[in-house]
Write a structure and sequence with these properties.
Length: about 425
């Protein structure tokens, strides 16, 4: 790779860092908002209690802001499914630059919100812009990477999300001290615009041409999403989508309720919070290692080992007495593996789908993952409200990766579809 390509990949990693910061901006801003935002009508309680479930991801639970917290996630799913596939038709660079510019614009506008409805609208619009850009960033990073390291490069680039979340939390006191709660949105909004301008300059004629550009797509179609639900691509997409949905459900189950479940098992809240934070960082290493295994070893075996280890570790937690060191080590594999799945499964798409379908496959996969994400916190809520305790919770957490093991056994069959479709036609 030449220096310009390396710079392009670094900037695209910056897009994921910006996303992590942006997603965490609203939870950080919420406790600092002025009083007086309009309250919800009485008959809205049930609706907001359902759509607001992912709010528990951040340890907060005001039902009136539940919809706001789901807005960006909903938007990312919509943008990934409906807008990102145009990168396969018009080129990755166009979607990435416009998506980053729109992200910056809507993030800045969020600071003008004075009601729940306005916050929801601008957070959803921000999510749509992010959803348009992110699958194309992943697809372009795969195309710019060496052929034998595509999945690994995709995983390293997407590892910016937890970095962004961490930076948002660490820098929040200083940012709020300078600019108030609005500053939490100024930072990712400004970063998005700077990244858009930088990527426009770096990708313009300097980086290798995207395989998702019009020149590379031999037969662009009006609705590329439809191809994923027809032969021959329905089987590969079903395999990837099933693992994405199950993994996302587990990830949001764990991130929503782990700080609540651990004290129920006997840990002090401070220790529970510390364990919940530590296990997140393990996902970066596991994700990179799994993606390397997908690239250079055996994709199916790699995924079976990763998901199998997760299931065994959650089962181990469920049947063992609470112990800070033992549970932390086991949860590093379990929770870290769930985070890693979000990195490794898009990397699998680079091997399963041709370049001209990559943004479409990843974008639709993001939509499916968001559907799973909404279900996870509701499962945890049912367990907590029933006062079932920690053991059933971790048994539930073991179920999703166990099912992923079964789906991963179908990966070799799914990979053969692309090999068969790209095989030269002999007379």
């Amino acid at each position: 790779m030449n220096s310009r390509t390396i710079i392009a990949l670094a900037l695209m990693a910056g897009v994921f860092v910006m996303e992590g910061y942006d997603i965490f901006a609203m939870p950080l801003a919420l406790p600092r908002l002025d009083e007086g935002l309009p309250a919800l009508p009485d008959n809205a309680g049930l609706f907001f209690s359902i759509v607001g479930a992912p709010f528990g991801l951040f340890g907060l639970w005001p039902p009136s802001f539940g919809l706001v917290m789901t807005g960006v996630l909903l938007g990312i799913g919509i943008g990934g499914a409906l807008v990102a596939p145009f990168g396969d038709r018009f080129g990755r660079r166009t979607l990435i630059v416009l998506g980053c510019l729109a992200t910056g614009l809507f993030t800045f506008i969020t600071t003008t919100s004075g009601s729940i409805a306005e916050f929801f609208l601008w957070r959803m619009m921000t999510g749509i812009a992010l959803g348009a850009a992110l699958p194309n960033v992943s697809a372009l990073s795969a195309e710019l990477a060496p052929p034998n390291l595509r999945g690994t490069v995709m995983a390293v680039v997407s590892a910016g999300i937890p970095v962004g979340i961490g930076l948002a939390g660490v820098l929040a006191p200083e940012v709020v001290g300078m600019w108030g709660w609005q500053g939490l949105f100024y930072v990712p909004g400004g970063a998005a615009i700077i990244l858009a301008l930088a990527l426009f300059a770096v990708l313009e004629g300097g980086a290798p041409q995207s395989a998702g550009s019009p020149a590379a797509a031999a037969k662009p179609v009006r609705f590329p999403q439809a191809a994923l639900f027809k032969q021959p691509w329905v089987i590969p997409f079903a395999v990837v989508a099933a693992m994405l949905a199950l993994n996302a459900m587990n990830l949001y189950l764990l991130n929503s309720w782990l700080p609540t479940i651990l004290p129920m098992a006997g840990f002090e809240q401070e220790m529970a919070d510390r364990i919940s934070g530590i296990v997140q960082f393990a996902g970066i290493g596991i994700g990179v290692a799994a993606s390397f295994g997908i690239d250079r070893w055996k994709p199916a075996t790699t995924l079976v080992l990763m998901f199998g280890a997760m299931a065994l570790c959650f089962f181990g937690v469920s049947v063992s007495a609470p112990d800070a060191l033992r549970w932390t080590l086991l949860l590093c594999v379990g929770v870290g593996g769930a985070s890693a799945g979000g990195m490794a499964l898009p990397a699998l798409c680079a091997h399963m789908f041709p370049p001209q379908q990559l943004s479409t496959a990843i974008g639709m996969g993001i939509l499916v993952a968001r559907l799973g994400a909404f279900a996870g916190p509701l499962v945890g809520e049912a367990i907590v409200e029933a006062e079932m305790g920690a053991q059933p919770f971790f048994l539930a957490a073991a179920t999703a990766p166990a099912l992923c093991v079964l789906v991963a056994l179908l990966v070799p069959m799914a990979l053969k579809v692309r090999v068969r479709e790209e095989a030269p036609v002999t007379a």
